Amino acid sequence: MRASYIHNKSLIRLNSKQCCYYTTVARSLNSSSEDAPGSAKTQISAPAFNPWLVTGFTDAEGSFMVSFTKSSESRHGFRIRAIFQIQLHKKDLELLKTIQAFFKGIGHISSSKEVVSFRARSLDDLQVIIAHFDKFPLKTKKQADFELFKRVVNKLSLKEHLSLKGFKEIVSIRASMNLGLTYALNKAFPEVSPVPRPTVKDEKVINPDWLAGFVTGEGCFFINISTSASNKIGFQVFFLFALTQHTRDKSLLEAIKDYLDCGAVKESSSRMNVLTLKVVKFKDISEKIVPFFNQYKILGVKSEDFNSWCQAIELVKDKNHLTSKGLEEIRQIKFGMNTGRPVSP
Q1: Using one digit for the tens of pLDDT, what is the confidence trace for 100-154?
Q2: pLDDT lower than 50: segments of the chain
């Protein structure tokens, strides 16, 4: 399927300081939101983006977890808690606040060193989370973890975990989620077997807002400058858009490739069970990738990397990379992107 945006000539390149995911109206949320432990509640902007974008970002960065904490007060020796979490680098705190606002201000945000986390764990809050993903389902194999997570939340709501039978049923569900049971749980319940993991239907229809959210979490925009004997200035500039996933989501990467009508999905030469969709042709990058993400906005700090990437692409289109001044400008753009981008105070 070739997306219609490719032929839209009216798309305008983003300004690097443009804010694309906030409205101008702020509201105070009666939640336990916090910038850091012990801090006061803050004003959070009401988000104005498509719900599919949130699902796409969760497919990339979200986690559905069931934790077991040793507790002498629990009749079975463990306290069970279902937790939905999105964890990011602290430079994306504002993005995390916006996602919390999207979910009606539930949960809380905490910080630890370089990491900020949004967590929802009360049963009432988790019903808001579940309602969203029931309506706007995940597209990666993470959907299976969500379905299992939903079963656990239902059992906790019905207080089934208070009986030994119900408790062991939750342990069996937990055994099929994420990385399986911990050593402590395996030792405590050696007789428990994992429940069958739900089958996730391969999703072939890509929603553009979902893709923008997914790339916000998993996508990368690179500039490579290498020596070139055939170029008068001695250097050549290359651009790369990359999207990496586990091999279990190969069909999804192939669907994204077909949707964008460019790139190739290849196995990683250095990492096991890893596939990457790469777009390297300049024509594809300038005529398909750039227009797409100008229309369907990337969020957070990665939007700044995308904007810088676009600036360098414009310089190449104008052939400025063939001059020493232009090449140095591209080099400075490259050094200020991704891990080289300074964190705002």
Answers
A1: 999 999 999 999 889 999 999 999 999 999 999 999 999 999 999 999 999 999 9
A2: 1-46
- CATH assignment of 31-138+142-188? 3.10.28.10
Residue 117's nearest CA partner among 61, 38, 66 is 61
pLDDT at 208: 96
306-324: pLDDT as tens digits: 999 999 999 999 999 989 9
The 3 state secondary structure assigned to 246-264 is EHHHHHHHHHHHHHHCCCE
Contact 277, 225 (CB under 8 A): no
Name which of 143, 145, 141, 338 is nearest 253 in CA terms.
141
How many angstroms separate the first and last alpha carbons of the chain? 43
Q: Residue 335: which H helix or E strand, with range? A: helix 324-335
Contact indicator for 211, 221 with CB cutoff of 8 Å: no
Q: Give the fold, CATH level 3, of 208-340.
A: Endonuclease I-creI (3.10.28)
**CA–CA separation, 219 and 59 (whole Å):** 12
- Residue ranges per structural domain of the chain: 31-138+142-188, 208-340
Residue 45 and residue 23: Cα distance in Å, rounded? 7
CA distance 152 to 130: 12
What's the DSSP call for residue 339?
A: G
Q: Does this chain's domain 31-138+142-188 share its CATH topology with 208-340? A: yes
Contact 53, 128 (CB under 8 A): no
Q: CA 153 → CA 83, 125, 149, 297, distances in Å?
A: 9, 11, 6, 33
Asked if 221 and 238 touch (Cβ cutoff 8 Å), the reply is no
* pTM (2 d.p.): 0.82
- What's the rounded Cα separation, in Å, for the pair 50 and 167? 38
